[in-house]
Amino acid sequence: MLKKLSLAALVAMGGMSFASATPLTEAIKNVDLNGMLRIRFYNEDPDGSHSYRRWRTNGIFIFKVPVAENIKFVVRNSVETNVYTHDDNLYPAGKSSNVDDNIVNNLLFMAYSKDGFNAILGKIPVATPVTSADPAAPGHGAGVIASYKVNDNFTGAAFFIDALKNPGDNTGLGVVIPHNVAGVAGIFNTDLVDGQIWYFNVNNVVDSLVTLSLDAYLPIEYKVGVHVDYAMGDLDDDFASANHLSKDPKNYFNVALTTNIDEVAAKLGYAYSDKHRGVVEFSVDAPIGAVIPTANNYNIANKTETSSIYGKLGYNVDPKTCVYLAAQYQDAGSKSGNENNDLTEFTIGAKYKVNKKLGFHAYYDIADWDDKADYNDNNEFRFEAKYTF
Questions:
Q1: How far apart are CA 163 and CA 318, in angstroms?
Q2: Residue 347 scores a pLDDT above 80
C-alpha cells in the first residue's frame, strides 16, 4: 500500500510541477542536432616495455535551440572512455582504465547573429590557432567571443576567456590556465592570399602572443599551394623568471608546399622552433603547431631549437579509397640540451569513405628516436571508425 501511495504522490507532484511544460513535439521543433560518434583501437609496441592495447570511444552531441529571433542556446555534451590493457591484464605504466568515464566537457552558451555580427557567450568552445582543435577535446572556457564581418574581404574579432582549458597541454602551464585570456583577431582574403592574424594576452603569464597564417596559390600550370605559419610569444618577466623560462621572445615558423596532380596529392614542409624556452601555443593539437603529417610526433612549436622536415604523399585509388605515406626527420639541434634526441618517423595509412557521414581510417606508425634514454621507440597501429551527423 505504501508503494502505491508513494507512486500516486509522485505522479501527482509531477503533474503539478510540469503542468505548464512545453509538449515534446513543440520543444524539439527547429532544434538542430549534430555531432560525432567515434571508435578507436590502438596497439602500442614501445621499445623496452610491454606492448599494450587501448580502446578510445567518443560521443559528441551538440544541440542548437532557437529561443528568439537571431538568438540560439547551444548545448554540447561530450563523453570519452579509454581502456588500456596488457596481455597479462596489467595496465601499462602511467595508464589506468576507466571503463565507464564521465562527461568530458559540457558546454552551454548563447549564440547571437545578425547583419554580419556574431557572438557567443557562456561556457564556450575556444577555436583559435593556439588552442586545441581536437574535435573530441577542444579548447574551451567561460567568456565571450564576438566577430564582425566588415565586408567580403575582412572580418574582425575580439575575445575574453576565463579558465581556458586545453586538452593536450604541452606548455607546462597546466591543462587549465587560471588567468584570463584576452585578444583580437583579423581574418582576411584577397585574390592572391588568404590569412589570419591573432593577438593574445594571458594575464601575468604571456605579455603578448602573436600568430600569423597565410595561404596562397602559385600561378603555374599545376596548382601549387603555399602555407605559412608564424608565432612569437613574449612571456611576462616575473613568470618567466619563476619558471626558468626565457625572457626573450620565442619564435616559431612553418612553411609547406602542396600540390594535386590527377589522383596524387603531395605535401613538403619545414617547421622550426628557436632556442628560447617559451610558449607560442597552448596545446599539442593547436592548429598552428599540429602541422607535421606523421601520426604521433606532429608538433614541435614549443620545443627548444628543434626543426622538422616532413612530407606526405597520397593516392586516391578510387572516389572512396585513399592510401598515403607520411614521413619526417626531426632535428633537436645543438643547443637544446637534447642534441642526440633526433627522430625519424614514418606513417603508412589508408582511408575508406563508406558514405558522406561514415568512414574508416587505419595507419601504422614507426617512431625511431636516436636517444633512447629520453624517448622510447614505438610502433603504433590504429584503426578508427567515425560517424558524423
A1: 46
A2: yes
pLDDT in tens, 18-50: 455 667 667 677 889 999 999 999 999 988 777
- 205/195 Cα distance (integer angstroms): 27
CB 252 within 8 A of CB 274: yes
298 burial type by CB count under 10 A (0-12 exposed, 13-18 middle, 19+ buried): buried
Instruction: Using the structure block, give the residue that is written with the C-alpha cell 585509388.
Output: 317
**Cα distance between residue 353 and residue 358, in whole Å:** 6
Q: Are 275 and 333 in contact (CB under 8 A)?
A: yes
CA-to-CA distance for 309 and 328, rounded, in angstroms?
6
The secondary structure of residue 336, as a DSSP letter, is: S
Q: List Cβ<8 Å contacts ≥24 apart for 259-264.
A: 259/222, 259/223, 259/224, 259/225, 260/222, 260/223, 261/222, 263/315, 263/316, 263/317, 264/313, 264/314, 264/315, 264/316
Q: Is 117's pLDDT higher than 50? A: yes
C-alpha cell at 329: 626527420
Beta bridge partners of 322: 316, 351
Whole-prediction pTM: 0.87
Is residue 88 scored above 70 in pLDDT?
Answer: no
> 111: which strand partners?
72, 120
Beta strands in the chain (DSSP E): 32-46, 52-68, 71-85, 103-114, 117-125, 140-151, 154-165, 176-177, 181-189, 193-202, 206-218, 224-235, 250-261, 264-273, 306-318, 321-331, 343-353, 358-369, 378-388
230 strand-pairing partners: 212, 253
The long-range contacts involving 195-200, CB below 8 angstroms and separated by at least 24 positions, are: 196/129, 198/128, 198/129, 198/130, 200/128, 200/130
To which residue does cell 618567466 refer? Answer: 240
